[in-house]
Amino acid sequence: MSAEIAEQEIAHEQQFVDRVYLQLEQSARNAEALAKEGHGRGRLGHEGGLVERDAMVFQAAKRLATLNAAHEGLVFGRLDLDDVEEAPRYIGRIGLRDENRDSMLIDWRAPAAAVFYQATAADPQGVVRRRVLRCAGPIVVAVEDDLLDADAETDLPIVGEGALMAQLSRARDRSMHSIVATIQAEQDQAIRAPGRGVVSISGGPGTGKTVVALHRAAFLLYSERRRYETGGVLIIGPSGVFMRYIERVLPSLGETAVSLRSLGEVVDGVKGVRHDDPAVADVKGAARMVELVRRTARQAVPSAPSEFRVFYRDENIVLSGRELAALRRQLLSQGKRNRQLPRVASTLLDAMWRQVRGERGRARGKEEFIDVMLGSAEFVEFALSWWPALDATEVLRWLRDPELLAKVGEGVLSQEDMALLSKSWAPTGAVAGKDEWSVEDVPLLDELRYQLGDVPEKIDRELDPLAHLVDENMPEVTTMSDREFATGPRTSTRIEDDNYAHVLVDEAQDLTPMQWRMIGRRGRGASWTIVGDPAQSSWPVPAEAARAREEALGDKPRHNFHLSTNYRNSKEIYDFAAAYASRVGLDADLPNAVRSTGVDPVQRQVEDLESGVRAAVAELASAVEGTVGVVVPVARRAQVQGWLDTWDELGDDVRGGFDARIAVLTGLDTKGLEFDGIVVVEPGEIESESATGRATLYVVLTRATQQMVTVFSS
Asked: What does the alpha-carbon distance between residue 572 and residue 569 come to, in Å, rounded to a whole number?
């Protein structure tokens, strides 16, 4: 195909794209007019006008948000069908109609667009030519064609070498991009799977599991918008780095009604950033921690008074430590701790009244006794301090006391386990004076929230005569923030609000049993999308995690999809990684890598690690146009980052934070990410730093799209 014909085809497509952008601008003006009209309805002076205003402004805002998000790559596909009388179908990020209400652009999620992804040369489904338009803003810069029906009588020109290979050769930046123009048939089946139950997407590295799952979320929001916008869509990934990497995908598809959380951010009001050492993480993630948390939630408040004495009508009334312990057990037998707040005063007063035996006290009656006690600052202070409203973070801090930890951990944890936890929670250094919870602490805090229960939002004053004082003294576990998904993800500190309509979990093979419990609570009535590859698991006891996963999912119907083609790695890089997996005994799912660069991975032993790392980084930075990941053992991260930060020859455009071309990461940080080039520093140390280090190193070896260098000193 000559360059002249290619230019003619691009010019032809540009005419259509220009028409679409003009219609997009008109649609935006229509939405703005609707919003203006809505505000006018609000000035009518009656309640109906206000309701109409809210509805019209809300719908206009949603439409404007969708239109604004669609500008980049608005039109990306065209189908030419074997029915010559049918006009070409153009596929885009959103659907648009012209001034006559005729369809001019089909939303990629619509049933009419499905054939764009599902047609193949073996089964063209009535499609003669499939064209992908590559645009820079509103400008068509290239077209790539696939001739699907070679037997069709057609004079359609075929341009390019195929859209998929063109897409795979593009340089990466620091964010994941939509694959909406190049979704393959096996990926499309997972995206359009039934909305109910559990969809599991498995496959080896580079098969597009994550981006397919995100497109599935967009598809669900399109197909059942009311259900999923009302109930909410929760997307959970392994790390903050990963969430920043994927955060642009759904908005680029016109969807913003989702809540994106890393595993350290699932619980509202808590943010875990750092990871514990692998040995500590293994303890905190284990299923046996459920019993330890349950016992902790039932303990007496460490700072609470151990007894109460009061003089009433010639009698000494004493609530001893033993009796208080019995009353605590009595209250806990009736339900979760915070839910018992309305019963505390009456329970204490009943126990105290039973000790009133003298004639003077009895003659006055129980009502006067209660009035006297409630008027006593001593009793009120005791009641509020003996049974305060408890917050999960406060209760977890109790376990900084080695004696209490030993008490609740007896028969649950070994002495070695308890020593690891004590060291982890010790209030020293950066932790002193404030909480710096780890990612692994967050599921424990969530477990405590459920063991403690919510403070009742409304306390019956007749049931609890101290209700007004409890209201004044309870922590802010009852605050509610805006849950309107049209303006952002909901947040709430109340347990009852922790349910979503759909839960998407990426890198699911790494979840610990405690993390599965945490996420499972948020998806009791939800449909699920679960993405993972068992060979990449960083959890050392997969059978225990599998049981927790099944408990979280319950008896929901299952739909399993397996992706078999590696689109990320060059064949040379993936063959290297697959050989490593085979050599160390990983039961790896080995997808077929479809792209070859002719550049083999380089293994380089150096005498001076610093100069060797710098040389490898400089080499890859000049060899690839996109990003370079420098993957290091956890213990060397600060050291290697320092080498690059103080290297004058490394330009500011490639050094720095998340948006820089070069990033220093640990093996676990690379989960779900990809780079044009990878420098692996001391792979042997990455392999040996945890019980699942081999799986982690396998993950690292599959992150590069073009070139990889491993650097080691011995």
From this structure: 8
Q: How far is CA 648 from CA 102, 426, 645, 655, in A?
A: 59, 40, 8, 10
Query: CATH number of 185-275+479-565: 3.40.50.300, 3.40.980.10, 3.30.1330.10, 3.30.300.30?
Result: 3.40.50.300
- Contact between 527 and 552 under an 8 Å Cβ cutoff? The reply is no
Q: Which residues contact 478 (CB under 8 A, 6 or more apart)?
A: 454, 455, 457, 493, 494
Q: Are 173 and 627 in contact (CB under 8 A)?
A: yes
The predicted structure's pLDDT at residue 432: 41
In this prediction, residue 483 carries a pLDDT of: 32
561-597 CB burial, b ≥16 within 10 A, e <16 = bebebbbbbbebbbbbbbebbeeeebebbbbebbbee
Separation between Cα atoms, residue 110 and residue 91, nearest integer Å: 9
Angle at 516 between CA 512 and CA 517, to 5 degrees: 120
Residue 219 sits at the vertex; the CA angle it makes with 217 and 225, to the nearest 5 degrees, is 90
What is the domain partition of the chain in residue ranges? 3-168, 185-275+479-565, 278-429+441-473, 566-712
Please tell me the class of the 566-712 domain.
Answer: alpha beta
Runs of H (alpha helix) within 458-565: 467-473, 513-521, 542-553
| Nearest in space to 345 (alpha carbons), one of 319, 306, 311 | 319
Please provide the average confidence, as pLDDT, over all residues in the chain.
Answer: 84
Residue 84: which residues within 8 A CB-CB, separation 6 or more?
A: none
Question: Is residue 458 very low, low, confident or very high in pLDDT (cuts 50, 70, 90)?
Answer: low
Find the range with the poorest average confidence among 55-69, 112-126, 686-700: 55-69
**Which residue type, as a one-letter code, is found at position 11?**
A
Alpha-helical runs (H) found in 390-541: 392-398, 402-409, 415-425, 442-452, 467-473, 513-521
pLDDT, tens digit, 9 for 90 and up, residues 599-617: 999 999 999 999 999 999 9
180 pLDDT higher than 50: yes
Placement of tokens 């993800």 in the chain: 489
Q: Whole-angstrom Cα distance, residue 713 to residue 682?
A: 7
Q: What is the pLDDT of residue 428?
A: 57
pLDDT in the model for residue 162: 58
If you search the block for the tokens 């790392």, which residue do you land on? 613
Give the separation between CA 600 and CA 387, rounded to whole angstroms.
Answer: 66
Determine contact, residues 675/699, Cβ cutoff 8 Å. Answer: no
The Cβ of residue 200 has, within 10 Å, a number of other Cβ atoms equal to 20
pLDDT of residue 169: 55
Cβ proximity of 425 and 400 under 8 Å: yes
* DSSP letter string, 296-351: HHTSPPTTS-S-EEEEETTEEEEE-HHHHHHHHHHHHHTS-TGGGHHHHHHHHHHH
Cβ–Cβ under 8 Å, residues 106 and 89: yes
- In 3-state terms, what secondary structure has residue 562? strand
Q: Do domains 185-275+479-565 and 566-712 have the same CATH topology?
A: yes
pLDDT for 63 equals: 56
CA 587 remoteness from chain centre: 27
Residue 201: enclosing H or E segment and its boundaries? strand 198-203
Residue 296 makes CB contacts below 8 A (sequence gap 6+) with: 395, 396, 398, 399, 404, 408, 448, 451
pLDDT in tens, 685-707: 999 998 899 999 999 999 999 99
Q: State the pLDDT at residue 39.
A: 58
pLDDT digits (tens, 9 = 90+) for 304-352: 999 999 999 888 999 999 999 999 999 999 999 999 999 999 999 999 9
Centre a 10 Å sphere on the Cβ of residue 465 and count the other Cβ atoms it contains.
18
